[in-house]
Design goal:
4 helices
Length: 89
């Protein structure tokens, strides 16, 4: 995650799901990660409209699509990324 702090990177990420996604991308040896919540200016209607109109390009060029479906918010994480993060039943 050190590269996130380079120019143009993110200085603080508090969402467990985003931190887990960053870790997964690093595990796979990939270089880039698109996170809607970070890459689309959420309180700018024009930016949201522009970005959403181009999501087909984002998904077409994606090597991998990660969907965080655990939990009820952005802190649900990606169960199984780290040891002990998924209960074994």
């Amino acid at each position: 995650m050190a590269r996130l702090r380079e120019d143009g990177g993110v200085s603080v990420v508090t969402s467990k799901s985003i931190v887990d996604a960053i870790s997964l991308v690093e595990i796979f040896g990939l270089e880039y990660l698109w996170v809607d919540a970070l890459c689309i200016i959420q309180d700018d209607d024009e930016d949201r409209k522009t970005q959403i109109a181009n999501m087909d390009v984002v998904f077409t060029c994606a090597v991998l699509t990660i969907v965080s479906a655990a939990g009820s918010d952005a802190n649900g994480g990606l169960p199984g990324i780290f040891p002990g993060s998924r209960p074994i039943t």
